[in-house]
TrEMBL record:
Belongs to the aldehyde dehydrogenase family. This is Aldehyde dehydrogenase. Coiled coil: none annotated. It comes from Mumia zhuanghuii. CDD domains: ALDH_DDALDH. InterPro entries: Ald_DH/histidinol_DH, Ald_DH_C, Ald_DH_CS_GLU, Ald_DH_N, Aldehyde_DH_dom, Aldehyde_DH_NAD(P).
Length: 517
């Protein structure tokens, strides 16, 4: 039975009365509401296009100052910021809990991962992005060739509400470490988290507005995407991602899109069934299933299907949502997701699926209880569309080949997991996704040196790791002559003899390679 709470107000972020401004005009504001009680957590300005543009302009000189510091000084400042976040981790977790409803311990876990990523980005930026010499090749042997990765300037980051620290920090930390200024637009559901991050950075950066905040609803995000930033990093739905791309295209602004997933877990016949069930339960239910890299589909070898379902059912009996200390996860943060979750469950059941945990009555006014559906047709909404709720579809497969085929039969391609022994790693490498973990779930997200991102409807571009640092830079290649060349090829004074020498050299270098029949 679903747990419900009184509070008829269904909107999570709402406009409130205009606040007076210095020129006696009216500046609209909006409220961030607790998903648990419906109470107002905070009130923030709904910033206009003109205000967003002004923030971006203020970031320009700050970006120049920040870039001029170099890797060593930036590392020192980012390290001090990381120290502030670490010492006040519970303070920030309280805000995350208030605005999302997730348990305090889960908020601490999220922040802890962000802290580790910030440390890695600051500590590895010089090695990954600094100037290095590359081999010029025999044709250009007289040239010294170098490449370095320079900051773009000002990066706009549009963050999500489900992981309001970890996810946007995957862009913010790496963009800052690469030498950019950042304008951060947090979700309208979690503006307090964004403000805390920006305010805490200001404590270590002084008067330089290297990291700034803009708050508001969708219009504010659209204004940032179409502003004169040098890149936009967005996390959200594919539909909104397309709107961000359209807005950014007006200025030919490059974008990074992380747009969710429909991730699957594969369980082979030699898997540790208890461990696989535990991982599936966490991957599907933690954060109320509101995890882009969470598990939504599970394909289990028919030989262990019944044992897996029995184990999963048993473990799920100890897990429920709620606001009390014993609850394992909190409410659905965005109310508009509730009817989507209910539609997916109802469709699966109507088409012959069975609920072994939860079911049709699992969806309440604020909370959704764990739901495990089995024998669900592959063309049902619960299999093909992102549910973003605490549900799992578990289907039996006759072979791992069939499991791989079903896993890859989606327009998404973000993360995934494989449980097994003999073939698990081999299977993992055949999954069409940006990331896959073996005998664990979402482990790749916690490894700072690994890139994070998807393919297809899950978006493009990467955060984290070397790829994440380079995502917020442009490559600058320079050649400098080391000695006079034997022949100058880029000249109208080039002779026929030099042309012959050139083709002879090409034949020596490459002419011996034969095409195979």
């Amino acid at each position: 039975m679903a747990t419900t709470s009184p509070t008829p107000k269904r909107t999570r972020a709402r406009k409130s009365a205009p606040a007076a401004t210095d020129d006696d005009g009216a500046s609209p504001t909006f409220d961030s509401l607790s998903p648990v009680t419906g109470d107002v957590v905070g009130t923030y300005p709904e910033m206009s296009r003109e205000e967003v543009d002004a923030v971006v302009e203020r970031a320009r000189p700050a970006a120049q100052w920040w870039a001029s510091l170099g890797f060593v000084d930036r590392k020192e400042i980012l390290g001090r910021w990381n120290g502030v976040i670490t010492r006040r981790i519970h303070q920030l977790a309280d805000i995350v809990h208030a605005e999302t409803g997730k348990p305090h311990s889960d908020a601490v876990l999220e922040i802890g991962l962000a802290i580790d990523h910030l440390a890695w980005a600051a500590g590895h930026a010089k090695k990954m992005l600094g100037r290095r010499t590359v081999n010029p090749g025999l044709l250009m042997i007289n040239q010294k060739a170098t490449v370095e990765y320079k900051p773009l300037g000002v990066v706009g980051v549009i963050g999500p509400w489900n992981y309001p620290v970890f996810t946007p920090m995957g862009s913010i930390a790496y963009a800052l470490a690469a030498g950019n200024a950042v304008v951060f637009k947090p979700s309208e559901y979690t503006p307090g988290v964004g403000k805390w991050l920006v305010d805490s950075f200001a404590e270590v950066a002084g008067d330089h507005p290297v990291l700034q905040l803009v708050t508001g609803l969708g219009e504010t995000g659209a204004a940032l995407a179409s502003s004169k930033v040098d890149k936009v990093a967005f996390t959200g739905s594919p539909a909104t991602g397309r709107k961000v791309m359209e807005a950014a295209a007006k200025n030919l602004t490059p974008v990074l899109i992380e747009a969710g997933g429909k991730d699957a877990m594969i369980v082979d016949e030699d898997a540790d069934v208890a461990a696989a069930a535990d991982a599936a339960l966490w991957g599907g239910m933690s954060n109320a299933g509101q995890t882009c890299i969470g598990m939504e589909r599970v394909y289990v070898h028919h030989k262990v299907f019944e044992a897996f379902v029995a184990e999963l059912t048993s473990q799920a009996s100890t897990v429920r949502s709620g606001s009390d200390p014993a609850a394992k996860f909190g409410p659905i943060t965005m109310p508009s997701q509730l009817p989507i979750i209910k539609r997916h469950i109802d469709d699966a059941l109507a088409r012959g699926g069975r609920a072994v945990v939860g079911g049709a009555d699992a969806v309440g006014e604020r909370y959704v209880q764990p739901t495990v559906l089995v024998d669900v047709p592959e063309d049902s909404a619960a299999v093909t569309e992102e549910t973003f709720g605490p549900t799992l579809v578990v289907n039996s497969v006759p072979s791992m080949e069939d499991a791989i085929r079903r896993t890859n039969a989606t327009s998404y391609g973000l993360g995934g997991a494989v449980f097994g022994k003999a073939r698990a790693a081999e299977i993992a490498h055949r999954i069409r996704s940006g990331m896959t973990s073996v005998n664990s779930v979402t482990s790749f997200a916690g490894v700072p040196s690994l890139p994070f991102g998807g393919v297809g409807e899950s978006g493009f571009g990467r955060i984290h790791g070397e790829d994440g640092l380079k995502e917020f830079t442009y490559a600058h290649a320079v050649t400098v002559p080391r000695f006079k060349p034997a022949m100058v090829l880029t000249s109208f004074k080039r002779t026929a003899a030099q042309d012959k020498s050139f083709t002879t050299l090409l034949s020596v270098l490459h002419g011996g390679k034969q095409l195979k029949d």
